[in-house]
Design brief:
By secondary structure, the chain is mostly helical. It contains 19 helices and no strands. It has helices at residues 9-12, 14-18, 25-29, 32-64, 68-93, 95-106, 109-135, 137-143, 148-159, 162-179, 185-206, 212-237, 256-284, 290-328, 331-367, 371-404, 407-432, 436-460, 464-478. The longest helix has 39 residues, at 290-328.
Length: 483
């Protein structure tokens, strides 16, 4: 296995560098080789994310054909399990982006398998705790003053996904392990197959077998287990990972504490941002004409989430590139990767913004047939456009944080940006200044701006050479050099 990171291998070929043609006008704007490498990496990651995102969404859609209460219950449960469980374990796996990425770039290949196993242990323990919370979904939702019938339906939907939580958390660890080795194309195939399997299984369980809401949710668990087993089999059976996977080892327990030190703030970082947007929807329910306000904020949040799927690919790319290059001691290449990814993400964000600017009425009509809501969405669309641009920038900078191991700084930034600035301003604008839904989203924009600016300052002021020196020291301590 080559010691040079896969995404950076094109830059290591001196002969190829000599044959490079004079840069075009595009080459003067952005490093086209780096940009092309990142696009090839990002596109599969975006597709993979969409397929996995579609699995619970399909089950919610099937639940909608069972009745209004079932649809409300499935929707509530899907939000509940995401906020209390799935978002947290996704964040936990983020620690591997630092550990595996830097170890791979440094040529410490055996470490990747050990880090993976330690992360699997941590994720399993977290899943066990979360499953207890999910078991008490109904009383907890009733405590939050949700409708009793909807709470009962939500509890059925949530409990059936308890087995799937363990598979999902393990799957996220496997995905990060593969991602940090720049293995992305097979991930699209696995995610597409899992989505197709889920579609067929949900249809069978809800339709011919008549298992109703429990069947729709059980299909999610089964699909996650199928995806997890397929990924694990790929790692175990493929000869491509012979240097990074040496089998299960008790030595992995030695790496549990270092994994927790990065995984915990990574989980907090993800959850704080996700919870802020969910909290915004709840606050919208307290506004006058809450039906329209809640619908508007929900539409804005969903639009932001869909736009972020594109950013996710670039965030994964820059996290991989930065961690690999730091591990290899290539500080200049790591910095260049950050610049290129920021330019690409902003370019794509602007493209998305143009589509929304000219097609906001068509987009809103996909969510609602109400002329009032469509009209109101048109007036709030400029604010959504601003938030998408900011979210695109911070998404990439968050990827840089994971690649460098700054999860604790990013978590603190998110806490201050959203809960000390964004949310208080949102409440002030919405209730005191009577801007209502627009005020809520304007406050969130202030939080996003603070988050993006803070992460940018951290990135600009980073002593990249010191990070690389620390990695060199780690290699020396390990007892051998780059393979």
């Amino acid at each position: 296995m080559a010691s040079v990171p896969l995404l950076g291998s094109h830059a290591a070929d001196d002969g190829h560098q000599e044959r490079r043609r004079r840069p075009s006008w595009l080459g003067r704007v952005v490093d086209t080789e780096e940009a092309w490498a990142q696009l090839r990496f990002s596109a599969p990651m975006i597709l993979m994310n969409m397929f996995y995102y579609g699995i619970p969404l399909v089950s919610v859609m099937f639940s909608g054909h069972l009745g209004d209460v079932q649809l409300a219950g499935a929707t509530l449960a899907n939000s509940w399990v995401t906020v209390t469980g799935y978002a947290f374990v996704i964040g936990l796996s983020g620690g591997l982006e630092t550990l595996c990425g830097q170890a791979y770039g440094a040529g410490l290949y055996i470490r990747l398998g050990l880090y993976l196993q330690s992360s699997l242990i941590v994720s399993a323990a977290a899943s066990a705790l979360i499953s207890v919370l999910w078991a008490f979904t109904e009383p907890l939702l009733l405590l939050l003053r949700q409708d009793p019938r909807v709470s009962r339906a939500a509890a059925v939907f949530a409990r059936a996904q308890i087995p799937g939580l363990f598979a999902f958390s393990s799957m996220q660890c496997l995905l990060r392990y593969l991602q940090m080795q720049s293995v992305v194309a097979p991930l699209v195939a696995f995610s597409a197959a899992s989505f197709a399997f889920h579609l067929a299984l949900a249809c069978l369980l809800v339709g011919p077998l008549g298992l109703g809401l429990a069947g729709a949710s059980a299909a999610v668990s089964a699909s996650y287990w199928a995806a997890c087993v397929a990924l694990l089999a790929y790692v175990l059976r493929s000869g491509a990972f012979s240097e990074t996977w040496k089998g299960f080892s008790a030595e992995a327990f030695r790496y549990v504490l270092p994994t927790v030190k990065l995984a915990a703030p990574s989980a907090v970082m993800v959850c704080l941002e996700y919870w802020a947007f969910e909290l915004l929807v709840l606050v919208a329910g307290l506004l006058p004409n809450s039906t329209v306000s809640t619908s508007l904020i929900a539409m804005c949040t969903n639009t932001e989430a869909i736009a972020y799927m594109i950013t996710y690919g670039f965030s994964a790319a820059v996290s991989t590139r930065v961690s690999n290059e730091i591990g290899a001691g290539n500080v200049a290449k790591a910095k260049n990767a950050v610049k290129v990814t920021l330019k690409l993400s902003l370019l794509l964000a602007i493209s998305f913004v143009l589509l929304l600017a000219f097609g906001h009425n068509l987009w809103a009509s996909l969510f609602s047939g109400s002329a009032t809501i469509i009209s109101e969405f048109g007036s709030i669309a400029p604010l959504v456009i601003i938030s998408i641009v900011l979210d695109s920038a911070q998404g990439v900078l968050s990827g840089v944080s994971r690649g460098c191991g700054w999860q604790h700084l990013a978590a603190l930034t998110n806490l201050v940006a959203f809960y000390f600035i964004g949310m208080p301003l949102a409440i002030l604008f919405a209730f005191k200044l009577k801007l209502y839904a627009k005020g809520l989203w304007a406050g969130m924009i202030c939080g996003l701006a603070c988050q993006a600016c803070s992460l940018l300052v951290i990135t600009v002021r980073t002593k990249w050479s010191k990070i690389a020196e620390a990695m060199e020291q780690e290699k020396d301590n390990y007892g051998y050099g780059v393979a």
